[in-house]
């Protein structure tokens, strides 16, 4: 008997354990978590002058990444209002929602105070930890049916997890 790889087990469990709404939720959480982590890393690299990344400006005005997030959420909203069910549950829609929300949440202090306090020490670490922790928890709980199915299959096939 040939056993499947972990990736094949995950793909099978994703399809069999999650309904389309749960699949969209998991994809959104994972997209949010990955984007938030990636944006944090990229902004730190820009601040430290490392890597190929630079701030994007037009006419001397910095374009904050929350703008791209608002645009993405506007597109997802249009699909929610007018799109058919296939578009609403499409993985690209779920990715756009998670990415857009992470881009906005990363600059939430700027939107809240309407001041560019992105690098202010007060609260930045706690915000990073809170958003990062909640995104990891949300991803975990959304993925729990998949994780359980993969663990059961691994135990069945190999006698251990």
Describe it for me?
The protein is an all-alpha fold and 161 residues long. The protein has one domain (19-158). Helix content is 75%, strand content 2%. The protein contains 7 helices and 2 strands. It has helices at residues 6-17, 20-48, 65-82, 85-88, 91-106, 108-113, 124-158; strands at residues 57-58, 61-62. A two-stranded antiparallel sheet has the order 1-2. Helix 2 packs across helix 7 (124-158). The relative contact order is 0.18.
Fold blueprint:
Blueprint: H1 6-17, H2 20-48, E1 57-58, E2 61-62, H3 65-82, H4 85-88, H5 91-106, H6 108-113, H7 124-158
Antiparallel strand pairs: 1-2
* Sheet with most strands: 2 strands, antiparallel
Q: Report the average pLDDT across residues.
A: 84
Question: Can you tell me the overall shape?
Answer: globular
**Distinct helical segment count:** 7
Percentage of residues in DSSP E strands: under 5%
DSSP summary, beta strand count = 2
Radius of gyration, taken over Cα atoms and rounded to an integer in Å: 19 Å
> What class, by secondary structure content?
mainly alpha
Strand order of the largest sheet: 1-2
What low-confidence regions span 5 or more consecutive residues with pLDDT below 50? Answer: none
How much helix is in the residues?
A: over 70%
Keywords for this entry:
161 residues; globular; mainly alpha
Task: Summarize, please.
This protein has helices at 6-17, 20-48, 65-82, 85-88, 91-106, 108-113, 124-158; strands at 57-58, 61-62. The protein has 161 residues and is an all-alpha fold.
């Amino acid at each position: 008997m040939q056993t499947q790889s972990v990736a094949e087990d995950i793909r099978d469990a994703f399809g069999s354990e999650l309904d389309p709404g749960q699949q969209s939720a998991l994809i959104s959480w994972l997209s949010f978590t990955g984007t938030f982590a990636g944006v944090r890393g990229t902004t730190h690299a820009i601040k430290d002058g490392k890597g190929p990344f630079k701030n994007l400006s037009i006419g001397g005005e910095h374009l904050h990444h929350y703008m791209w997030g608002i645009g993405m959420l506007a597109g997802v909203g249009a699909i929610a209002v007018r799109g058919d069910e296939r578009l609403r549950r499409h993985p690209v829609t779920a990715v756009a929602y998670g990415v857009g929300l992470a881009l906005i949440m990363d600059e939430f202090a700027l939107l809240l105070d309407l001041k560019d306090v992105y690098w202010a020490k007060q609260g930045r670490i706690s915000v990073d930890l809170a958003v990062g922790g909640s995104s990891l928890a949300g991803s975990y709980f959304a993925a729990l049916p998949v994780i359980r199915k993969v663990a059961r299959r691994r135990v069945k096939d190999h006698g251990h997890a």
